[in-house]
Automatic annotation (TrEMBL):
The chain crosses the membrane at residues 12-36, 48-69, 76-94, 100-119, 131-154, 166-184, 211-234, 254-275, 282-300, 306-330, 351-371, 377-399. Keywords: Membrane, Transmembrane, Transmembrane helix. SUPFAM superfamilies: MFS general substrate transporter. PROSITE patterns: MFS. Residues 11-403 form the Major facilitator superfamily (MFS) profile domain. This is MFS transporter. It comes from Gordonibacter faecis.
Amino acid sequence: MQEEKLYPWRWVILIGMTVLLISLQFSFIVPGGAAILVMQEYQCEPMMFSMIMSIPYFSGVLFCMAGGVLADRLGLGKVFAAAFIVSLLGALARCFSGDYWTLFISSFFMGMGVAALNANSAKLLRLWFPGTANSFAMGVYTAGMSAGAALAIWYGSRVAVIQDAWWFSFGLMVVGVIVWFAVYRKHPDGEHRSVEPVGQYLRVVVKNWHVWAVAIVAFLVFGMTNVNGSYMVAAVTTLMGDPSLTSIAGDMSTINTVIACVASMALPVVFAKLFKNMRAPFIICLVGTALCFGVVFFLPYGPITWAVFCIQPILMASAMPFTKMLPTLLPSVKTEHYGVVGGIQATFQNFGMFLIASYIISPIAIAATGAVDGVPYYQGVYVATAVLCLVAVASLFLFPNVRSSVAGKIADEQAAAKNDQV
């Protein structure tokens, strides 16, 4: 098997796509930092507010698969350009939103940029980071989600007028898009576009059960990660019992996401060194996250609350890059099909982030507690999320115990090729 080349520009590509993801994620999460202010300004209850937090991800449900297919056929640059323009127009429209439904609709169009980026992130990083650095690169990229969320929660919990947050996030998105197109380059060896008819290679991909299995994992894992962004500030504020302490809850959420940012870069590399295969570290992270979510709001507010919300992101953050790497680790997926496989996975990822927090977790919490707000309601939210983590553990047995790194997969392929030649 021919050795894949490494190009120094790969680090610039990684920085560019991470900066872009930070700006896009900031725009989605900033309402979470200003949760109380948004609910007052737009006259909405926590469940309606969580719909605002989740609707940008519904764009991905509708367009991620198309974004992956088009990238395989037309190239990444054209797909990104169209998606980012629509996303910027949505962010601009949000700046002028005066009622709940205008805010809701504009937030939907904002999600187009992340839909395109998430659908093709595995493909893009597999092109530029073909071997040992792929785990680290995916960790850095997914850290962009946590970094954007950390900045958004910190800023949003301190903003006095919500329109200021809308304009600031729009400006940040403009910067992110400019940075991306300033650094983006086509890979010197090409993008491994598929030359098969679309219908032919789609049939190959959709018949592969393992593709749908990793999509289910993405649905569960990323749906779980959206719970903190939707509820954490309001939940901790409620636990403290004083609405004027929102900024302290915002600080806790910021620390939580900063820890997640660092952990998502470092731990996948550590786990790739310690574990030959992916399943064991994945289970450790999900079970640990479930324990943290299950107990945190049954404890009185104090140092223990801070401790739990510092441990939880270390575990949960590692699950995100693990999940995003899965399409490139499946032995049965061809390189030229990474776009469409990533599109299927990102569709389920966005569906989880749209659906689970607002339309599954919240109704379950309401039904179980009989409350739509207050500490019992948030206890129900986080216990239901803990159960979701355990369901995600079960989903890991739907596909083979893949290697913990792309380098391991490549080594297996090279060994298999040598055996075939013997």
